[in-house]
Amino acid sequence: ADDDPSTAPSGIETRADEAISESTEATHDRAITVDEPTGGLTAGLDPVLQQSAGTWIAWGDGDADFDVADERDCVAVPPDDPSYTLQRIDLSDEAVDSYYYGFSNRVLWPLCHGFTDLVDHQSNDFEWYRTVNERFAEAVREHATADSVVWLQDYHFALASQMIRDDVPPSTTVAQFWHIPWPTSATFRHCPAGGHVLKGLLGNDMLGFHISRYAERFLDCVHRFLPAADVDWTRQTVSYDGNVTRVVATPMGVDAESYDRDARSISASQLSSLFDRYDIDRENVIGLGVDRLDYTKGIPERLAAIERFLERNPTWHGEFTFIQTATPSRTDIRAYERHGDLVRSEVKRINQRFGTRAWSPIVYTEDYLSGAELCALYRRADLMVVSPLTDGMNLVAQEYVAASVDGDGSLVLSRETGAHETLGSHALTIDPTDIDDFARQLERAVSIPPHERKRRMNTLRTRVFDGDLEWWMKTQFDWMRSVRTERRRTGVT
Ligand code: ADQ
């Protein structure tokens, strides 16, 4: 691959939510199912891997032969015209519990989102986290050569890059993207094994965040908690233990063209059948929320704002419907279970308070919607509400804009999302905890003059298309190339 940033010979991918299915091939005695990627990071990485004939290493979903990787764990992708290898690492139930639900999602996830009261560190969690990181690092080392680019995704691998760096040739490029926020130093000081996390991440030659606020907070944490590290604030680099890490901010985008294309191809009958399924009056003004059922996404605050809006605006009763899709997620974690119960009971209470025989103000579903259904809702929604208490980026806001092909929807957007950095000036900004103002922004969204709505949406669309997934991928690989060139210039070969 040399210095060509468009090729990534070795990748590591962890985002279990982004599925793989459709064509099935049998390898030895196991059936392996491979899906076309439908969106998000998977869709972006797939063509890169196809071009580079690389290896994608991911958490598998099969037998828990945790100790050894063998050829049965590798599958050629795409099956009909193989161009890269997908290697799956199977994890035992105990590993999943302590590594994935444990240190990743009961410690790092709440901590990085500032929910320190939800951090629940149980014995063995960190040891399993280290063990699984080591297992992935081992798999990477089996493939990495001096020319390889290794790209790790997300907070499930805070230790792996250091483990990889120690064992691959010095000219191998090791990079990582951290998809969630990086917390303030006041929050990070509560991180169990925080020193290990920082040192682990400094094994990268390049470390990416969505926005500069997170990159700066990371540098601040390194400066405060790792005195042996040398932070260069101007160049945004850290020198530690013989390695230099470049810290960059690149806001992730969506495959805007595909959302645009899919939204344009929605037929009136597809939309009608969706509205029939949920018994929604087609003539109503439609508000929409699309989220994983996660306590960071601000769904109870959104429901409270809708309730306030309905209290203050009886003329909208019967005329306004809010559709909330909430996909259950990490349900093995108590905080998620409790949060789901809270959301369901609030929806019920508000519907009982305002609803009539013919009308429910909130239509709530936990169905996982197909890409086409999601696009149909995005296109039809008069207003989209994205109200996380904190969110690394938030792709839903961008998907809505990309699918708003009629140019006439309004985006109500939390200032606490990474997406607000690029979209905030033309969205209707909210502080999700200020319920009164939130309700006022909903009032504004339903009554905004059409020409202003279109003007705002036009600018939002330009931003989303300019900073789409392809731009993000290219920018990440450009950074990796520049880091590699710099390492060579300074004699690391
Ligand atoms: P998430 O927290 O998962 O991602 P988000 O960026 O909003 O959050 O992406 C969610 C994805 O799930 C979207 O692509 C959306 O279309 C899809 N989705 C949600 N509900 C759905 C439903 N009911 N049916 C079908 N699809 C549904 C993490 C970080 C984010 C960051 C991303 C990418 O928390 O801040 O934007 O990674 O870096």
Topology:
Layout: E1 10-12, E2 23-27, E3 30-34, H1 40-52, E4 55-59, E5 74-77, E6 84-89, H2 93-112, H3 125-143, E7 149-153, H4 160-165, E8 173-177, H5 185-188, H6 194-201, E9 206-209, H7 212-225, E10 230-232, E11 237-240, E12 243-249, H8 256-264, H9 268-277, E13 285-292, H10 299-312, E14 320-327, H11 334-354, E15 362-365, H12 371-380, E16 383-386, H13 395-403, E17 410-414, H14 420-423, E18 428-430, H15 435-447, H16 450-466, H17 469-489
Helix pairs in contact: 2-3, 8-12, 8-13, 10-11, 10-15, 12-13
The chain binds adenosine-5'-diphosphate-glucose.
Written account of the structure:
With 493 residues, the chain is α/β, with parallel strands linked by helices. It has helices spanning 40-52, 93-112, 125-143, 160-165, 185-188, 194-201, 212-225, 256-264, 268-277, 299-312, 334-354, 371-380, 395-403, 420-423, 435-447, 450-466, 469-489; strands at 10-12, 23-27, 30-34, 55-59, 74-77, 84-89, 149-153, 173-177, 206-209, 230-232, 237-240, 243-249, 285-292, 320-327, 362-365, 383-386, 410-414, 428-430. The chain is globular and about 70 Å long. The strands form three sheets. Strands 5-6-4-1-7-8-9-12-11-10 form a ten-stranded mixed β-sheet, sandwiched between helices. Adenosine-5'-diphosphate-glucose (ADQ) binds at residues 39-40, 179-180, 252, 290-292, 325, 327, 368-369, 374, 391-396, 399. It comes from Natronorubrum aibiense. Keywords: Plasmid. One of its GO terms (molecular function) is trehalose-phosphatase activity.
